[in-house]
Amino acid sequence: MTLTAAANRRTASDRIVFDEIGKHYVRAGDQLQVLDRCSFTVEPGEFVSVIGPSGCGKTTLLNMAAGFTAPDDGSVRVGDDVVTRPHPSRGVVFQQYAIFPWLTVARNIEFGLTLRANRRPRGERKDVVRRYLELMGLEPFASAYPKELSGGMRQRVAIARAYATDPQVLLMDEPFAALDAQTRERMQELLHETQLTERRTVLFITHSVEEAIFLSNRVVVLSARPTGVREVVDIGIPAPRSPETRLSPRFVDLRRRLEGLLRSASTDEAGARR
Amino acid sequence: MLSAGRVLFTEQDLLFDVRVSMTRVCIGVAVGSLLALPVGFLLAWYPTLRAMAEPLVNFFRALPPIALVPLVIVYFGIGEDARISILVYASFFAAVIVLFEGISSIDPLLVRATRVLGANPWEVFIRTVVPASVPHLFTAVRVALGVSWATVVAAELVAAQRGLGAAIQDAATFYRIPDMYVGIAMIGATALLMDLVLKLIQSRLTTWQEKTR
Protein backbone atom coordinates (compact mmCIF):
# COMPACT_ATOMS: atom_id res chain seq x y z
CA MET A 1 0.00 0.00 0.00
CA THR A 2 1.23 3.47 -0.79
CA LEU A 3 0.22 4.78 2.62
CA THR A 4 2.37 2.28 4.49
CA ALA A 5 5.14 2.94 2.03
CA ALA A 6 4.87 6.62 2.83
CA ALA A 7 4.90 5.90 6.55
CA ASN A 8 7.92 3.58 6.28
CA ARG A 9 9.77 6.01 4.08
CA ARG A 10 10.05 8.42 7.01
CA THR A 11 13.64 8.18 8.09
CA ALA A 12 16.22 10.16 10.00
CA SER A 13 16.39 12.53 7.01
CA ASP A 14 13.08 13.99 8.22
CA ARG A 15 14.33 15.06 11.62
CA ILE A 16 14.33 18.79 12.42
CA VAL A 17 17.04 19.89 14.85
CA PHE A 18 17.21 23.37 16.37
CA ASP A 19 20.73 23.57 17.75
CA GLU A 20 21.61 26.37 20.18
CA ILE A 21 19.73 29.00 18.16
CA GLY A 22 20.48 32.62 18.92
CA LYS A 23 19.05 35.75 17.30
CA HIS A 24 19.36 39.39 18.21
CA TYR A 25 18.30 42.69 16.75
CA VAL A 26 20.06 45.99 17.13
CA ARG A 27 17.65 48.79 17.97
CA ALA A 28 18.76 52.34 18.75
CA GLY A 29 22.27 51.09 19.47
CA ASP A 30 21.03 48.52 21.98
CA GLN A 31 21.37 44.86 21.27
CA LEU A 32 18.09 43.07 21.83
CA GLN A 33 18.52 39.34 22.35
CA VAL A 34 15.40 37.59 21.04
CA LEU A 35 16.44 33.96 21.00
CA ASP A 36 19.11 32.55 23.26
CA ARG A 37 20.54 29.02 23.02
CA CYS A 38 17.20 27.61 21.96
CA SER A 39 17.41 23.85 21.29
CA PHE A 40 14.88 21.15 20.54
CA THR A 41 14.26 18.36 18.06
CA VAL A 42 11.29 17.21 16.04
CA GLU A 43 11.62 13.45 15.44
CA PRO A 44 10.71 11.87 12.07
CA GLY A 45 6.94 11.49 11.70
CA GLU A 46 6.34 13.48 14.84
CA PHE A 47 3.90 16.38 15.24
CA VAL A 48 5.41 19.03 17.51
CA SER A 49 3.77 22.32 18.46
CA VAL A 50 5.60 25.38 19.71
CA ILE A 51 3.81 27.74 22.08
CA GLY A 52 5.09 30.71 24.00
CA PRO A 53 4.28 34.23 25.17
CA SER A 54 3.38 36.55 22.31
CA GLY A 55 6.39 38.16 20.69
CA CYS A 56 8.79 35.51 21.96
CA GLY A 57 10.02 34.55 18.50
CA LYS A 58 7.94 31.47 17.62
CA THR A 59 7.52 32.58 14.04
CA THR A 60 11.20 33.48 13.85
CA LEU A 61 12.03 29.85 14.66
CA LEU A 62 9.75 28.64 11.88
CA ASN A 63 11.22 31.15 9.44
CA MET A 64 14.66 29.77 10.24
CA ALA A 65 13.53 26.21 9.53
CA ALA A 66 11.96 27.40 6.27
CA GLY A 67 15.13 29.23 5.27
CA PHE A 68 13.66 32.75 5.24
CA THR A 69 15.77 33.98 8.17
CA ALA A 70 19.26 32.99 9.27
CA PRO A 71 20.08 32.49 12.96
CA ASP A 72 22.93 34.58 14.41
CA ASP A 73 24.16 31.65 16.47
CA GLY A 74 23.66 27.91 16.13
CA SER A 75 21.94 26.22 13.22
CA VAL A 76 18.78 24.51 12.06
CA ARG A 77 19.25 21.10 10.46
CA VAL A 78 16.73 19.08 8.53
CA GLY A 79 18.14 15.60 8.13
CA ASP A 80 21.82 16.12 7.39
CA ASP A 81 21.41 19.50 5.75
CA VAL A 82 21.92 22.82 7.46
CA VAL A 83 19.06 25.07 6.37
CA THR A 84 20.29 28.09 4.43
CA ARG A 85 17.44 28.89 2.03
CA PRO A 86 13.90 27.81 1.09
CA HIS A 87 13.65 24.36 -0.42
CA PRO A 88 10.68 22.30 -1.66
CA SER A 89 11.61 19.53 0.77
CA ARG A 90 10.34 21.85 3.51
CA GLY A 91 6.70 22.75 2.92
CA VAL A 92 5.25 25.84 4.59
CA VAL A 93 1.65 26.71 5.44
CA PHE A 94 1.15 30.42 6.18
CA GLN A 95 -1.38 32.06 8.44
CA GLN A 96 -2.74 34.20 5.60
CA TYR A 97 -3.12 31.19 3.26
CA ALA A 98 -1.02 32.68 0.45
CA ILE A 99 -2.79 30.70 -2.23
CA PHE A 100 -2.70 32.05 -5.78
CA PRO A 101 -5.91 33.99 -6.49
CA TRP A 102 -5.57 33.61 -10.27
CA LEU A 103 -5.51 29.81 -10.15
CA THR A 104 -8.37 27.42 -9.49
CA VAL A 105 -8.28 25.20 -6.41
CA ALA A 106 -7.02 22.22 -8.43
CA ARG A 107 -4.31 24.31 -10.12
CA ASN A 108 -3.22 25.73 -6.79
CA ILE A 109 -2.69 22.22 -5.42
CA GLU A 110 -0.89 21.22 -8.61
CA PHE A 111 1.34 24.30 -8.68
CA GLY A 112 4.42 22.88 -6.92
CA LEU A 113 4.42 19.82 -9.18
CA THR A 114 4.64 21.97 -12.31
CA LEU A 115 7.86 23.72 -11.21
CA ARG A 116 11.17 22.53 -12.58
CA ALA A 117 12.48 21.53 -9.14
CA ASN A 118 9.82 18.83 -8.68
CA ARG A 119 8.01 18.46 -11.98
CA ARG A 120 5.83 15.37 -12.38
CA PRO A 121 4.19 13.99 -15.51
CA ARG A 122 0.64 15.17 -16.12
CA GLY A 123 -1.01 11.86 -15.21
CA GLU A 124 0.76 11.69 -11.90
CA ARG A 125 -0.11 15.30 -11.15
CA LYS A 126 -3.79 14.59 -11.76
CA ASP A 127 -3.62 11.66 -9.32
CA VAL A 128 -1.97 13.72 -6.61
CA VAL A 129 -4.45 16.57 -7.06
CA ARG A 130 -7.42 14.18 -6.93
CA ARG A 131 -6.06 12.54 -3.81
CA TYR A 132 -5.65 15.79 -1.86
CA LEU A 133 -8.92 17.25 -3.11
CA GLU A 134 -10.56 14.19 -1.61
CA LEU A 135 -8.54 14.19 1.61
CA MET A 136 -9.34 17.85 2.25
CA GLY A 137 -12.98 17.59 1.18
CA LEU A 138 -12.40 20.03 -1.66
CA GLU A 139 -13.76 18.02 -4.61
CA PRO A 140 -16.83 20.24 -5.16
CA PHE A 141 -14.53 23.26 -5.40
CA ALA A 142 -11.88 21.83 -7.74
CA SER A 143 -12.52 24.42 -10.46
CA ALA A 144 -13.49 27.31 -8.17
CA TYR A 145 -11.30 30.37 -7.68
CA PRO A 146 -10.10 31.25 -4.16
CA LYS A 147 -12.33 34.34 -4.01
CA GLU A 148 -15.35 32.03 -3.92
CA LEU A 149 -14.06 30.15 -0.87
CA SER A 150 -14.37 30.78 2.86
CA GLY A 151 -11.27 31.22 5.02
CA GLY A 152 -11.36 27.60 6.19
CA MET A 153 -11.61 26.31 2.63
CA ARG A 154 -8.74 28.52 1.51
CA GLN A 155 -6.55 27.16 4.25
CA ARG A 156 -7.46 23.60 3.15
CA VAL A 157 -6.18 24.50 -0.30
CA ALA A 158 -2.94 25.83 1.20
CA ILE A 159 -2.46 22.67 3.26
CA ALA A 160 -3.21 20.44 0.27
CA ARG A 161 -0.73 22.43 -1.83
CA ALA A 162 1.96 21.97 0.83
CA TYR A 163 1.36 18.22 1.05
CA ALA A 164 1.20 17.76 -2.72
CA THR A 165 4.91 18.31 -3.34
CA ASP A 166 5.64 15.53 -0.83
CA PRO A 167 7.98 17.55 1.41
CA GLN A 168 10.18 15.89 4.03
CA VAL A 169 8.85 18.18 6.71
CA LEU A 170 5.93 20.56 7.02
CA LEU A 171 6.16 23.90 8.78
CA MET A 172 2.88 25.52 9.80
CA ASP A 173 2.77 29.08 11.09
CA GLU A 174 -0.47 29.60 13.06
CA PRO A 175 -2.47 28.32 10.09
CA PHE A 176 -5.84 28.49 11.86
CA ALA A 177 -5.38 31.77 13.73
CA ALA A 178 -7.54 33.76 11.31
CA LEU A 179 -10.48 31.32 11.44
CA ASP A 180 -13.58 31.46 13.62
CA ALA A 181 -13.75 29.06 16.59
CA GLN A 182 -15.95 26.43 14.98
CA THR A 183 -14.09 26.29 11.69
CA ARG A 184 -10.90 26.17 13.68
CA GLU A 185 -11.88 23.04 15.61
CA ARG A 186 -13.09 21.37 12.43
CA MET A 187 -9.75 22.18 10.76
CA GLN A 188 -7.83 20.78 13.70
CA GLU A 189 -9.73 17.52 13.38
CA LEU A 190 -9.12 17.46 9.64
CA LEU A 191 -5.41 18.07 10.09
CA HIS A 192 -5.24 15.39 12.77
CA GLU A 193 -6.89 12.85 10.46
CA THR A 194 -4.56 13.87 7.65
CA GLN A 195 -1.56 13.42 9.89
CA LEU A 196 -2.72 9.91 10.84
CA THR A 197 -2.72 8.80 7.19
CA GLU A 198 0.18 10.91 5.90
CA ARG A 199 2.59 10.71 8.85
CA ARG A 200 4.76 13.75 8.14
CA THR A 201 7.22 15.48 10.39
CA VAL A 202 5.35 18.62 11.37
CA LEU A 203 6.46 21.75 13.19
CA PHE A 204 3.36 23.67 14.19
CA ILE A 205 3.39 27.20 15.62
CA THR A 206 0.33 28.30 17.57
CA HIS A 207 -0.75 30.53 20.42
CA SER A 208 -3.61 28.23 21.37
CA VAL A 209 -2.81 25.74 24.10
CA GLU A 210 -5.85 23.65 23.24
CA GLU A 211 -4.87 23.43 19.59
CA ALA A 212 -1.35 22.40 20.52
CA ILE A 213 -2.55 19.58 22.82
CA PHE A 214 -5.15 18.29 20.39
CA LEU A 215 -2.76 18.00 17.46
CA SER A 216 0.63 17.19 18.90
CA ASN A 217 2.79 14.36 20.10
CA ARG A 218 4.84 16.86 22.04
CA VAL A 219 4.52 20.54 22.89
CA VAL A 220 7.53 22.84 23.24
CA VAL A 221 6.89 25.71 25.64
CA LEU A 222 9.16 28.70 25.09
CA SER A 223 10.14 31.16 27.78
CA ALA A 224 9.92 34.94 27.48
CA ARG A 225 12.74 36.96 25.90
CA PRO A 226 15.51 36.10 25.59
CA THR A 227 13.68 33.03 24.47
CA GLY A 228 14.84 29.53 25.25
CA VAL A 229 13.00 26.27 25.71
CA ARG A 230 11.21 26.33 29.04
CA GLU A 231 9.80 22.84 28.93
CA VAL A 232 8.91 20.08 26.50
CA VAL A 233 5.65 18.34 27.39
CA ASP A 234 4.71 14.84 26.19
CA ILE A 235 1.03 14.77 25.31
CA GLY A 236 0.60 10.99 25.28
CA ILE A 237 -3.05 10.99 24.33
CA PRO A 238 -3.51 8.03 21.97
CA ALA A 239 -4.71 8.61 18.41
CA PRO A 240 -7.22 8.86 16.87
CA ARG A 241 -8.38 11.86 18.84
CA SER A 242 -11.94 13.10 18.54
CA PRO A 243 -13.92 16.16 19.67
CA GLU A 244 -14.61 14.25 22.94
CA THR A 245 -10.86 14.11 23.58
CA ARG A 246 -11.02 17.82 24.41
CA LEU A 247 -13.16 16.99 27.44
CA SER A 248 -11.12 14.07 28.78
CA PRO A 249 -9.43 14.47 32.21
CA ARG A 250 -5.99 14.01 30.67
CA PHE A 251 -6.66 16.80 28.17
CA VAL A 252 -7.95 19.16 30.83
CA ASP A 253 -4.96 18.40 33.08
CA LEU A 254 -2.52 19.13 30.28
CA ARG A 255 -4.34 22.31 29.47
CA ARG A 256 -4.10 23.51 33.05
CA ARG A 257 -0.43 22.67 33.20
CA LEU A 258 0.52 24.27 29.91
CA GLU A 259 -1.49 27.40 30.58
CA GLY A 260 0.27 27.65 33.95
CA LEU A 261 3.64 27.37 32.23
CA LEU A 262 2.70 30.01 29.69
CA ARG A 263 1.41 32.38 32.33
CA SER A 264 4.56 32.12 34.42
CA ALA A 265 6.66 32.63 31.29
CA SER A 266 4.77 35.86 30.59
CA THR A 267 5.13 37.09 34.20
CA ASP A 268 8.87 36.42 33.99
CA GLU A 269 8.93 38.75 31.04
CA ALA A 270 6.92 41.42 32.85
CA GLY A 271 9.30 41.05 35.81
CA ALA A 272 12.35 41.30 33.59
CA ARG A 273 11.05 44.49 31.99
CA ARG A 274 10.73 46.28 35.32
CA MET B 1 -27.01 71.10 -32.79
CA LEU B 2 -28.63 67.88 -33.92
CA SER B 3 -28.90 69.15 -37.48
CA ALA B 4 -25.33 70.40 -37.23
CA GLY B 5 -24.34 66.89 -36.16
CA ARG B 6 -26.16 65.31 -39.10
CA VAL B 7 -24.42 67.61 -41.55
CA LEU B 8 -21.06 66.94 -39.91
CA PHE B 9 -21.43 63.17 -40.09
CA THR B 10 -22.66 63.11 -43.66
CA GLU B 11 -20.95 65.96 -45.48
CA GLN B 12 -17.78 66.54 -43.50
CA ASP B 13 -17.18 62.93 -42.61
CA LEU B 14 -16.77 63.41 -38.86
CA LEU B 15 -16.46 59.65 -38.35
CA PHE B 16 -13.25 59.80 -40.34
CA ASP B 17 -11.92 62.35 -37.86
CA VAL B 18 -12.96 60.11 -34.99
CA ARG B 19 -11.13 57.23 -36.61
CA VAL B 20 -7.99 59.26 -37.20
CA SER B 21 -7.87 60.39 -33.57
CA MET B 22 -8.67 56.92 -32.30
CA THR B 23 -5.93 55.32 -34.37
CA ARG B 24 -3.40 57.82 -33.07
CA VAL B 25 -4.45 57.17 -29.48
CA CYS B 26 -4.40 53.40 -29.93
CA ILE B 27 -0.91 53.34 -31.44
CA GLY B 28 0.40 55.77 -28.84
CA VAL B 29 -1.05 53.86 -25.90
CA ALA B 30 0.00 50.47 -27.29
CA VAL B 31 3.62 51.48 -27.91
CA GLY B 32 3.85 53.55 -24.72
CA SER B 33 2.45 50.79 -22.52
CA LEU B 34 4.59 48.10 -24.15
CA LEU B 35 7.69 50.17 -23.42
CA ALA B 36 6.48 50.86 -19.89
CA LEU B 37 5.95 47.17 -19.13
CA PRO B 38 9.60 46.03 -18.87
CA VAL B 39 10.62 49.32 -17.26
CA GLY B 40 7.85 48.92 -14.67
CA PHE B 41 8.99 45.40 -13.83
CA LEU B 42 12.63 46.45 -13.54
CA LEU B 43 11.86 49.41 -11.31
CA ALA B 44 9.59 47.35 -9.06
CA TRP B 45 12.10 44.50 -8.83
CA TYR B 46 15.26 46.47 -8.09
CA PRO B 47 14.78 49.04 -5.31
CA THR B 48 18.10 50.75 -6.00
CA LEU B 49 17.21 51.22 -9.67
CA ARG B 50 13.89 52.59 -8.56
CA ALA B 51 15.46 55.05 -6.15
CA MET B 52 17.66 56.34 -8.96
CA ALA B 53 14.99 56.46 -11.66
CA GLU B 54 12.03 57.74 -9.70
CA PRO B 55 12.97 61.46 -9.65
CA LEU B 56 13.70 61.24 -13.35
CA VAL B 57 10.36 59.62 -14.07
CA ASN B 58 8.55 62.19 -11.97
CA PHE B 59 10.36 65.00 -13.74
CA PHE B 60 9.28 63.86 -17.19
CA ARG B 61 5.83 62.93 -16.02
CA ALA B 62 5.28 66.45 -14.72
CA LEU B 63 5.94 67.99 -18.15
CA PRO B 64 2.66 68.47 -20.00
CA PRO B 65 3.13 66.50 -23.23
CA ILE B 66 1.63 69.38 -25.13
CA ALA B 67 4.55 71.57 -24.07
CA LEU B 68 6.75 69.31 -26.13
CA VAL B 69 4.83 69.86 -29.36
CA PRO B 70 7.06 72.66 -30.66
CA LEU B 71 10.18 70.65 -29.85
CA VAL B 72 8.83 67.55 -31.50
CA ILE B 73 7.92 69.53 -34.60
CA VAL B 74 11.54 70.68 -34.85
CA TYR B 75 12.78 67.07 -34.80
CA PHE B 76 10.00 65.12 -36.52
CA GLY B 77 8.31 67.79 -38.60
CA ILE B 78 4.53 68.07 -38.55
CA GLY B 79 3.78 64.59 -39.85
CA GLU B 80 2.12 61.65 -38.22
CA ASP B 81 5.42 60.67 -36.53
CA ALA B 82 5.38 63.86 -34.50
CA ARG B 83 1.88 63.34 -33.14
CA ILE B 84 2.38 59.66 -32.38
CA SER B 85 5.68 60.21 -30.62
CA ILE B 86 4.06 62.73 -28.27
CA LEU B 87 1.35 60.19 -27.48
CA VAL B 88 3.92 57.48 -26.86
CA TYR B 89 5.68 59.83 -24.49
CA ALA B 90 2.45 60.70 -22.65
CA SER B 91 1.35 57.05 -22.40
CA PHE B 92 4.73 55.79 -21.30
CA PHE B 93 5.08 58.02 -18.27
CA ALA B 94 1.46 57.63 -17.22
CA ALA B 95 1.69 53.84 -17.51
CA VAL B 96 5.11 53.34 -16.00
CA ILE B 97 4.21 54.98 -12.72
CA VAL B 98 1.00 52.97 -12.31
CA LEU B 99 2.84 49.78 -13.26
CA PHE B 100 5.69 50.05 -10.84
CA GLU B 101 3.47 51.17 -7.99
CA GLY B 102 1.18 48.23 -8.71
CA ILE B 103 3.89 45.65 -9.20
CA SER B 104 5.72 46.65 -6.04
CA SER B 105 2.47 46.28 -4.10
CA ILE B 106 2.22 42.56 -4.99
CA ASP B 107 1.88 40.54 -1.78
CA PRO B 108 5.41 39.40 -0.85
CA LEU B 109 3.83 36.39 0.84
CA LEU B 110 2.79 35.04 -2.57
CA VAL B 111 6.38 35.34 -3.75
CA ARG B 112 7.54 33.58 -0.61
CA ALA B 113 4.98 30.81 -1.09
CA THR B 114 6.17 30.35 -4.66
CA ARG B 115 9.80 30.05 -3.60
CA VAL B 116 8.95 27.58 -0.88
CA LEU B 117 7.27 25.32 -3.43
CA GLY B 118 10.59 25.13 -5.27
CA ALA B 119 10.40 27.93 -7.85
CA ASN B 120 13.62 29.39 -9.27
CA PRO B 121 13.78 33.18 -9.79
CA TRP B 122 12.54 32.93 -13.37
CA GLU B 123 9.55 30.83 -12.27
CA VAL B 124 8.78 33.27 -9.46
CA PHE B 125 8.66 36.00 -12.10
CA ILE B 126 6.71 34.24 -14.80
CA ARG B 127 4.33 32.22 -12.62
CA THR B 128 3.59 34.70 -9.84
CA VAL B 129 4.76 38.25 -10.53
CA VAL B 130 3.38 38.36 -14.08
CA PRO B 131 -0.13 37.03 -13.35
CA ALA B 132 -0.35 39.19 -10.24
CA SER B 133 0.53 42.21 -12.41
CA VAL B 134 -2.22 41.77 -14.99
CA PRO B 135 -4.79 43.93 -13.13
CA HIS B 136 -2.18 46.67 -12.77
CA LEU B 137 -1.42 46.51 -16.48
CA PHE B 138 -5.07 47.19 -17.24
CA THR B 139 -5.16 50.10 -14.83
CA ALA B 140 -2.00 51.46 -16.47
CA VAL B 141 -3.49 51.22 -19.96
CA ARG B 142 -6.67 52.95 -18.83
CA VAL B 143 -4.74 55.81 -17.27
CA ALA B 144 -2.58 56.07 -20.40
CA LEU B 145 -5.72 56.14 -22.50
CA GLY B 146 -7.09 59.09 -20.54
CA VAL B 147 -3.87 61.07 -20.80
CA SER B 148 -3.54 60.25 -24.51
CA TRP B 149 -7.00 61.48 -25.36
CA ALA B 150 -6.30 64.77 -23.67
CA THR B 151 -3.00 65.01 -25.50
CA VAL B 152 -4.17 63.98 -28.96
CA VAL B 153 -6.92 66.55 -29.12
CA ALA B 154 -4.61 69.30 -27.92
CA ALA B 155 -1.99 68.27 -30.46
CA GLU B 156 -4.55 68.21 -33.24
CA LEU B 157 -5.76 71.67 -32.30
CA VAL B 158 -2.26 72.93 -32.89
CA ALA B 159 -1.04 70.93 -35.82
CA ALA B 160 -3.18 68.54 -37.81
CA GLN B 161 -5.40 68.47 -40.89
CA ARG B 162 -7.73 65.70 -39.66
CA GLY B 163 -8.76 64.34 -36.32
CA LEU B 164 -11.29 65.54 -33.77
CA GLY B 165 -9.12 68.38 -32.52
CA ALA B 166 -8.61 69.60 -36.08
CA ALA B 167 -12.34 69.37 -36.72
CA ILE B 168 -13.07 71.54 -33.70
CA GLN B 169 -10.42 74.04 -34.75
CA ASP B 170 -11.90 74.06 -38.20
CA ALA B 171 -15.35 74.79 -36.85
CA ALA B 172 -13.97 77.58 -34.70
CA THR B 173 -12.31 79.22 -37.66
CA PHE B 174 -15.68 79.56 -39.38
CA TYR B 175 -17.51 80.33 -36.16
CA ARG B 176 -19.68 77.19 -36.36
CA ILE B 177 -20.45 76.94 -32.62
CA PRO B 178 -22.82 73.91 -32.80
CA ASP B 179 -20.19 71.98 -34.75
CA MET B 180 -17.70 72.66 -32.00
CA TYR B 181 -20.07 71.17 -29.45
CA VAL B 182 -20.59 68.08 -31.58
CA GLY B 183 -16.85 67.63 -31.85
CA ILE B 184 -16.35 68.00 -28.11
CA ALA B 185 -19.18 65.55 -27.40
CA MET B 186 -17.57 63.04 -29.78
CA ILE B 187 -14.29 63.22 -27.85
CA GLY B 188 -16.07 62.28 -24.62
CA ALA B 189 -18.16 59.59 -26.27
CA THR B 190 -15.21 57.93 -28.00
CA ALA B 191 -13.03 57.97 -24.89
CA LEU B 192 -15.91 56.50 -22.88
CA LEU B 193 -16.44 53.76 -25.44
CA MET B 194 -12.76 52.79 -25.48
CA ASP B 195 -12.67 52.65 -21.70
CA LEU B 196 -15.77 50.43 -21.67
CA VAL B 197 -14.24 48.02 -24.17
CA LEU B 198 -11.09 47.85 -22.09
CA LYS B 199 -13.06 47.24 -18.90
CA LEU B 200 -14.90 44.40 -20.62
CA ILE B 201 -11.66 42.72 -21.69
CA GLN B 202 -10.30 43.20 -18.19
CA SER B 203 -13.23 41.56 -16.45
CA ARG B 204 -12.92 38.63 -18.89
CA LEU B 205 -9.21 38.19 -18.21
CA THR B 206 -9.28 38.70 -14.46
CA THR B 207 -12.39 36.82 -13.36
CA TRP B 208 -10.30 35.58 -10.44
CA GLN B 209 -9.95 39.02 -8.96
CA GLU B 210 -11.76 39.84 -5.77
CA LYS B 211 -14.02 42.84 -6.10
CA THR B 212 -13.70 45.14 -3.15
CA ARG B 213 -16.79 47.25 -2.91
From TrEMBL, chain A:
Residues 16-249 form the ABC transporter domain. Transmembrane segments: none annotated. Gene3D superfamilies: P-loop containing nucleotide triphosphate hydrolases. CDD domains: ABC_NrtD_SsuB_transporters. One of its GO terms (molecular function) is ATP binding. The keyword ATP-binding applies. InterPro entries: AAA+_ATPase, ABC_transporter-like_ATP-bd, ABC_transporter-like_CS, ABC_transporter_ATP-bind, P-loop_NTPase. PANTHER family: ALIPHATIC SULFONATES IMPORT ATP-BINDING PROTEIN SSUB, TAURINE IMPORT ATP-BINDING PROTEIN-RELATED. This is ABC transporter ATP-binding protein. It comes from Jiangella asiatica.
